[in-house]
Every structure is written in C-alpha cells, then in structure tokens.
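I had to read the description of the data format several times before I understood it. Each protein is reduced to its one-letter sequence and a matching series of backbone shape codes. The format is easy to grasp once an entry is in front of the reader. For illustration, here is how one protein appears when written out as sequence plus structure tokens:
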Amino acid sequence: MNLEQRIKAFIKLGDFIRQFTNNIPQKKENIPFNDLFFDGFKHQLKIAQEQNKWFNTDNLTFALNGWAESLTENNINTWLKPYTFNSNPAKRVAIIMAGNIPLVGFHDFLSVLITGHEVIVKQSSNDKHLLPFLAKYLEYIEPEFKSKILFVDGKLDQFDAVIATGSDNTARYFEYYFKDKPAIIRKNRNSVAVLTGNETTEDLEGLADDIFRYYGLGCRNVSKLYVPKQYDFQNFFQAMYKWKDVINDHKYANNYDYNKAVYLMSEFDMLENGFLMIKEDPSFSSPIATLFYEYYNDVNSLKNELISKKSKIQCIVSKDFTEHEIVFGNTQSPKLWDYADNVDTVAFLLKI
C-alpha cells in the first residue's frame, strides 16, 4: 500500500465523518459502505455519551467536525508536503491514548498509519467506542489496513516504538517501562491566555470557547489567565455569559458546587458569576468550573517566565504577544501540523 492509497483512504473516512458534523446526522449519497456503517456509527455515538457523560452531543459533534475539516485532500497534502517518505520496512507502533476529549488520540493513529507503519492501540476506558468503529470503516475502504490495525485491552507486546499520553505520574512509569524503545511520552500540559485589557468583545467571546469547550478537560483548554495589574474583569465576565448554559449539565454543576464550597470554607478570595469561578493562583491546572489568574507587571518578564515554563504549556492565547500564539477562540481547532507538545510526530515516525 503506497502513500497515495493511504491518503485516499483517510479522505474517504473524512467524507464518512462529515455526515455526523451536525447534532442530527445527515446520511449522504455516494459514501462507500454507508448502508453498512451509518446507523452503526450513530449507535456508537449514543453509547459513547452513555458511557462518558462529558461526551455530550455538542462536544462529539465539535470533535467530529474538526476531523472532517482536517481529512481533506488539500489539508492532508499540505501537512505531508515537507516530509520525505521512504521505503523503510514498516514498524509496529504502540499508542497509549488519553480519554479526556472525544477521539483525542486520533492524530497519533492517523500519523502512524499514514507513515506506513502498523498500529497497536491501547485506549482509555473513557473513550473506547468511536475509534475502533472508524478503524473498521477504514479497513473496508482500504482492505490492506486490516493487517495494520490492532486494538488491545491488556499488556502491550511486540512493538518497536511507542507514543504514550498520560499524567505526570504515569509519564514517569512510561519513561521507565519504555526506556529501551523509541518513544514520545506526553505529560500534563495546560493552556494559558495573556490579556492586556484592550481585547474586543469578539476576542473575549473566543476566549470563552477556549475555556469552556469540552468542559475545560483538554490540554488545549485555557485554564490560566495572565492579566495586568488593576485589570477589570467586568468585560471578561460579560463575554463568558455566552456559555452560561454549561451550568445546566449536572456533572459540571456538581463540580462547580463542590469547588465553590471548598474555596468558601478555605476562605480563598475568588470571583464568580454563577457558572465560573476565577481565583488568583500560580498554578496552571485549575479544577473544572474554575479558572486561575495571575497578575503581571512587565510584558518582557512575562515572556521570559512563560519560556521557562514551556514544558507545562500547550498553547498561549493572546494578541501580538508572542510568535507562536493562538488566536482567541481557536485552541480547539488545531491543524494537522499543530503537533501536541510541539513534537513532530511524523518526523519521529519516519525515523524509527
């Protein structure tokens, strides 16, 4: 199976996924094997919601829309253009996936297969229904994938390289366990936003999406603000109002009530608007329904501080602050070439 075949297969997978990018799926004509797979994937989406209450319809739809937009001929070719593909023998690459947001491990899955390797997938129990079904569809589209995709529940065995995502604690275990294998080990990361007080309403409403999408569970979600001294949070809270209905989700509401009670009993200073709390705190990782913030006095000093802590930061959301900043509202819409932790997965896979 050559690169062109692999690309065409994923383009067709994108066409299939595109039917599920609205809250009510729309079955389309001329989608291969649609009669066999369309209703089945609807059922898998239903099961995914039942098994993980964070995976509501809006979040599943948003995730699928992102992949439908990415898996086009133009985007895939743009992504792969800088690389030189060789005819080296295929290796077996194990992927240990997180499960914090829907299909969070799909980019690794795509990268392994598009580079011609075989993939062994160990999924999180929080997100185990969608990818196997999409993989089965991929095997129907391109039967040569059948011998290249394996899902496992138990111990990983007989692999040549590994891509593993987990917490800081599990990463230490991964680093020890996989010390003799080529590996990409991903740890805890969070995203931050740098505000100046000159942001437009549109900027701040985009920031609201960066904060609340997926309930803030993703590493690309903003969990920490840097604001200038004397910053007035009034416009910020007004912009957050577009996400007010998030409090109607009982899991989110339970987290909000619990964390609020903890803060009040601990007599922590915090501001809140009925569905979001903000608390001054030097940490990056804030609890659900909470956003940390920190004041800064000097822009250059803040830049140096964030550079020194880059191993903890996935994205910086800002306007005219730093070279690799993310535009407000775009953290959860990465391109294929926006690699997690800035580690080029394809380059890694082409060298093993």
